[in-house]
Amino acid sequence: MGQCDPGLKHARSLQVTEAHTAEAVGSGDVPVLATPALLALAEGACVSALADELDPSQTTVGTWAEVEHTKASPVGATVCAHATLIGHHNRRLEFRIAVEQDGEQVALVKHRRMLVDRERFLQKLAPTVTGC
Question: What's this model's pTM, rounded to 2 decimal places?
């Protein structure tokens, strides 16, 4: 594994489309950026931050997130997630992600990812049939 030193940063942006709205993803009934879509953007920024730091046999999986989504972003707006690695404790990686629109913060995300061996992780997945 690379260093994965705290302070590692990456930014990722997204132009909000109808597919990213609360209406479309089922998390609400208004045409604004859905919190689940915002979280996916934030997680993606974290994954990208680590891309050059990991051995090809390794990956990370998201295990926890705390999202404070404070301002709505309409269709057409561009939001940018600025991820910063703030902690690295063995396999646990902790991030802080500030999400901005037009220079104003619209969300703050705290996110945890676990470093895993890609092959071992995938082998543990067993086909299951479940219902709710």
Answer: 0.92
